[in-house]
Amino acid sequence: MKSCRLAFSPPGRVLLALLIVLWPAVAGASGVSFQGQWQQVVSGAGDCESCSVEIRRNGPVLKVTGRDGWFAVTHLGRVEGSSAEGIGRWNEDGASRYRGKPFDIRITIVDEHLYMDMSVRMDDGSKQAIRAIFDKRRLEKSGRLRLAHM
């Protein structure tokens, strides 16, 4: 019985190795991009019609800026292209109870929505959880509605 053996040229082997390594990231990625403006739909910290986040991507790093006074740097997961984790800080100025506080953050895209879980470290050592859901389409719709009323 003959043995079945695949012969690959050196460039073919490199391409195959890259495909094997990158396949989980490509397969796990959702069709929605993190980049852009996201309008808050729901939040555990209370409703906020003007709350939104802006996400800018530089390779696997995402810079997340909240309109309500915080920023974070996250890194896309290797296997799941639809989630990112990182750290951030609330701005020093302002009257927020979170003023200057550091936090851990995880953002995930599920069904075209951005889910945010933030864990703020308070002065007494406790952690305050903030959860919110954002939607790109809501922002686009509200912008069209404003234009229609002009």
SSE arrangement, N to C:
HEEEEEEEEH
Shape: globular
Radius of gyration from the alpha-carbon trace, in angstroms: 21 Å
What's the rounded overall pLDDT mean? 77
* Poorly predicted spans: 1-8, 15-30, 143-150
Number of strands: 8
Helix content: 10-25%
Amino-to-carboxy terminus distance: 79 Å
Number of helices: 2
Structural class label:
alpha+beta
Largest sheet: 8 strands, antiparallel, barrel
Strand content: 35-45%
Written account of the structure:
The protein is α+β, with helices and mostly antiparallel strands and 150 residues long. It has helices at residues 10-28, 136-148; strands spanning 36-43, 52-58, 61-66, 70-76, 83-90, 102-110, 113-121, 127-135. The protein has an 8-stranded antiparallel beta barrel with strand order 1-2-3-4-5-6-7-8. The chain is globular, with a radius of gyration of 21 Å.
Indicate the topology:
Blueprint: H1 10-28, E1 36-43, E2 52-58, E3 61-66, E4 70-76, E5 83-90, E6 102-110, E7 113-121, E8 127-135, H2 136-148
Antiparallel strand pairs: 1-2, 1-8, 2-3, 3-4, 4-5, 5-6, 6-7, 7-8
Describe the structure concisely.
The chain is an alpha+beta fold and 150 residues long. It has two helices and eight strands; from the N terminus they run H-E-E-E-E-E-E-E-E-H.
Features:
150 residues, alpha+beta, 2 helices, globular, disordered C terminus
